[in-house]
Amino acid sequence: MSKLHIKKGDIVFVMSGNDAYNAKNPEQSKGRVLEVFPEKQKAIVEGMNIVSKHTKPSAKSPNGGIEKKEAPIHISNLMHVDPKTGKPTRIGRKEGDKGKLVRYAKKSGEEIK
Predict the structure, then answer these.
(1) Overall number of domains in the chain
(2) Cα–Cα distance for residue pair 73/94, rounded to 1 Å
(3) Average confidence (pLDDT) over 95-107
(4) How far apart are CA 75 and CA 87, in angstroms?
(5) What is the pTM of this model?
(6) Cα separation of 107 and 92, whole Å?
(7) Would you say residue 42 lies in a domain?
(8) How far is CA 102 from CA 22, 99, 105, 111, in A?
């Protein structure tokens, strides 16, 4: 299994799907990664890919009903947002100080924390 270019906490841009790039308001296509599933190559992005989940009554929710929640999006449909420009960019890896690999934005060369 190869390393993923997305990690929990990253700001990403959704490239395709229902929440994809909107020319009138590109800020709507950006969100923070809440969770990553490397084995499925998917990630959950805050406020994106909202689905309605029907729940039965239980101790946790006595009335049951319809719950809105984020569903996973495939990693290939996400692009990292450049910390300098705020636009989507590809990610590279280079050797940083102390010989560790660090991620960097290919457009600006800015290191990604």
Answers:
(1) 1
(2) 27
(3) 88
(4) 17
(5) 0.80
(6) 10
(7) yes
(8) 31, 9, 10, 7
pLDDT, averaged across the chain = 88
Asked whether the CA dihedral 34, 89, 3, 92 is positive or negative, the reply is: negative
Q: Which two tokens stand for residue 3?
A: 């390393």
Q: Residue 44: which domain range?
A: 11-81
Residue 113 covered by a domain: no
Query: Is 87 within the bounds of a domain?
Result: no
Residue bearing tokens 């923070």 = 32
Check: CB of residue 13 under 8 Å from CB of residue 21.
yes
* Rg, Å, the chain Cα set: 17
Q: Is 101 a domain residue?
A: no
Structure tokens at 68: 């809105």
